[in-house]
Amino acid sequence: MKTSRRHFFRSAGLVGLGVAATPGINPLKGAGKEKAAGQPKFEIGVASYGLRGLTFEEVVETMKKLQIRNLSLKSMHLPFDLSDQEIRERMKIMRGEGLNPYAPGVVYMKSEQEVHDRFEYTQTAGMGMIVAVPNYDLLDLVEKKIEETGIRIAIHTHGPDNLPYASPTDAYDRIKNRDPRLGICIDLAHVLRSQLDPVQQIHAVKDRILDIHIRDVTKAAKEGHTCRPGQGIFDFRASLSALTEIGYDGFVSIEYEAEKEDPIVGHAETKGYINGAMS
Known about the structure:
- With about 280 residues, the protein is α/β, with parallel strands linked by helices.
- The protein has 10 helices and 11 strands.
- The strands form 2 sheets. It has a 9-stranded parallel beta sheet. The protein has a two-stranded antiparallel ribbon with strand order 9-10.
- A hairpin with an 8-residue loop joins strand 9 (about 215) and strand 10.
- The protein is globular, with a radius of gyration of 18 Å.
- About 45% of the residues are buried.
């Protein structure tokens, strides 16, 4: 039976966008709390590409309004050409506001120099993972850098968009015999756009999943695009149940790509759907 949008918002307790600003409410309350047996172990996050129309300062405030602490940072919010001091200052601001910037991404690695530079950038920022798309011929170097730094790589899957790693199983076949810290970031919307079953893909690569991107999508075809949750075809409950079944304990990050200049409502509604599905 299809669950209504109203049920999801009630389940999420998402009363309104002003809740985070209400006196006495801590937007990060419950962060790091132990999960009860049988409950999802993952936490909700945001991939900041969906906030690309906002400045760094606006992203920090938006995360507080959304009451989400975990953040994967696209380069417009932590540019590669910042000095080491500027990178550390931005990280200090975010952490001082209670946020957890856990990875840069999506980061493209098309040359050996870019591999070296992006690992150094991530070390300077004090993050332990990169959501990345390294060219196939750079995987040996990427694996070597993982061994040197301890930084994990989550290879982002891009569906039918003519980029490397079209599907989770494609990525898995290329890394299954490599360092286990070389894993996969499954973009569930792109899986659906490739006309694949997200649940089947989750189970097929379960031992290599390091990150998840999530949003609703209009159709299971290359032409499918981001839409408000409940207006598309993505089955939130099925995919989140699969992640619970395999014991996934990373982040499920909202990458809501629509409404570039005013993305907060779409992010809030997606958070509501995720919480509703988990309830």
